[in-house]
Amino acid sequence: MEHKKARLELGNGQTLEGWSFGYDGPADGEVVFSTSMVGYPESLTDPSFEGQILCVSYPLVGNYGIPDMGTGPDGLVLHAESERIHVRGLVIADYSQNYSHWDAVESLGSWLKRERVPGISGIDTRALTRMIREKGVMPGRIVVDGCPEAAGEVENHLVKAVSCKEVIKYGKGSKRVVLVDCGVKHNILRCLVSRDIEVVRVPWDYDFTEMDYDGLFLSNGPGDPAVCTETIDHIRKALQGDRPVFGVCLGSQLMALAAGAKTFKLPYGHRSHNQPVRRVGTDKCFITSQNHGYAVDPTTLPAGWEPFFENLNDGTNEGVRHLEKPFFATQFHPEASGGPVDTEFLFDDFISLL
To answer: How many Cβ atoms from other residues are within 10 Å of residue 112's Cβ?
Structure first.
């Protein structure tokens, strides 16, 4: 199959040349990397990647194709973390056009083309990953020979772009959890519904404070948590009460901001399925799935709050919790998908508090 030449133009002035696969169109965004070896259908549909061009450091991508992504009986998309691809572009070293898997229905390239997402292969992703580690994430764009170079208008408020637009209910149970959707992964919804919980999913800026619920869940999502001022105000009001609150990823940052702490942008973030964390004050360690570019500054946590987990690679915060009230959050993803399920017990901990 003939592919067009393409190039990745980076914000530091460097240009990397390769071949187009997928959609032959332009893309611009923040260039980030992930060290995950598998799980590209889940990663590409993770709303936390909204606004980003993803470099996958593992050299071979596409070899097991794309599975059926129809809707299951629970109303959630099968084998994916949302209804669409959220990365703006995909950068890989070696694209496997021929795929082999019993559950595959199409190639990675045909999926990208149908979703109008460009991919570029033939890139030295090891060198690109080292560049990002040394210089930090940077803006970039994919340009395909013979195609327009302008990518068009993009949504600046990333959470607004990925959040639901109306209230959606899932499951049935004796307990009700309100989930603030800042870009929720579907496996979070699955983990709650499978535990006989009624989940009420509300938009990121929805005022849930007067709703009747047993627990509050703050979802993952893309970008800078500080722009979600409406969400932070609603969470701050909820923290004045005593109903359990559990946050994941962006939800951890939002909880910390609502409590009065501060967040900061990491040089290149944590994006992979193999991030080691330690529960603070113990020798218990876990391998976790992560996807974030910001972190909580634990030194700014107010009285009554403490760090919950820490990252063993760089020592950054991986969660916060209240000393007396049933409020806790993790920077990593206990629902995995993809990645290890070492910390899925945290959903059980949350349910036990309802």
So the answer is: 23
Q: Which residues pair with 22 in a beta bridge?
A: 118
State whether 288 and 340 are in the same domain: yes
**Which are the contacts of 148, defined by CB distance < 8 A and separation ≥ 6?**
25, 26
Q: The domain that contains 271 carries what CATH number?
A: 3.40.50.880
333 flagged as catalytic = yes
Q: What is the pLDDT of residues 109-167, one digit of tens each?
A: 999 999 999 999 999 999 999 999 999 999 999 999 988 777 666 667 999 999 999 99
From the candidates 249, 273, 292, 310, which is the catalytic residue?
249
Q: Are residues 90 and 236 in the same domain?
A: no
Q: Based on the domain organization, do 342 and 200 belong to the same domain? A: yes
Residues 244, 318, single domain; the answer is yes
Residues 322 and 313: their CA atoms lie apart, in Å, by 25
pTM > 0.85? yes
User: Could you tell me if residue 112 is inside a domain?
Assistant: yes
How far apart CA 287 and CA 339 sit, in angstroms, is: 9
- CA-based torsion, 289, 292, 298, 301: positive or negative: negative
Check if 335 is active-site. yes
Q: What is the pLDDT of residues 97-106, one digit of tens each?
A: 999 999 999 9
Q: How far apart are CA 189 and CA 193, in angstroms?
A: 6
What range defines the domain where residue 75 resides? 5-144
For 262, residues 6+ apart whose C-beta sits below 8 A from its C-beta are 256, 296, 297, 300
Query: Beta 138-144 vs 27-34: how paired, if at all?
Result: antiparallel
299 inside domain = yes
The CA distance from 29 to 50, in Å, is 9
Helix H or strand E encompassing 349? helix 345-353
Per the structure, the count of domains in the chain is 2
Is the residue at 152 inside a domain?
A: no
Residues paired with 168 in a beta bridge: 201
Q: Is 273 a catalytic residue?
A: no
Are residues 255 and 165 part of one domain?
Answer: yes
Catalytic one of 30, 42, 310, 335: 335
In a domain, 153, yes or no: no
Q: Are residues 169 and 209 in the same domain?
A: yes
